[in-house]
From TrEMBL:
GO terms for biological process: mitochondrial translation. This is Ribosomal protein S16. Residues 1-15 have a biased composition (Basic and acidic residues). Gene3D superfamilies: 3.30.1320.10. GO terms for cellular component: mitochondrion; small ribosomal subunit.
């Protein structure tokens, strides 16, 4: 269905472009029907399909496949390289000293004292 984006979901539509029945009856009726020429026309004039419609049009061969997303393994080890906030690229930490306390200098480092038991 082609509809104006400013109209309500169940409101006025411009043109019916097909149908989709996710649960066909026991009679084995058709699940999907599209008017390919009209779908291609609306896409050519700038119509933007919703995500579910985009998947249907991909299965029908009207649209190219969606781009793949590169994702890391779920639960795997994480890359702990810091990212530069302006460029978004990983920082090279060769020769950089990481300090836990930014106010401490190298000469201020003290060894922890041994605990003593006083009776």
């Amino acid at each position: 269905m082609a509809a104006d984006s400013r109209s309500p979901r169940d409101g006025k539509h411009l043109e019916v472009l097909g149908y989709y029945n996710p649960l066909p009856g026991k009679d084995g009726g058709k699940r999907m029907g599209l008017k390919f020429d009209r779908v291609k026309y609306w896409l050519s004039v700038g119509a933007q399909p919703s995500d579910p419609v985009q998947r249907i049009l991909f299965r029908a061969g009207v649209l190219p496949p969606p781009p793949l997303l590169a994702m890391g393994r779920k639960g795997g080890h994480r890359d702990r390289n810091p990212i530069h906030p302006m460029t978004g690229r990983p920082l090279d930490l060769e020769g950089v000293t990481i300090v836990d306390d930014p106010n401490a200098t190298e000469g201020d480092a003290e060894e922890p004292a041994e605990p003593s038991l006083e009776a």
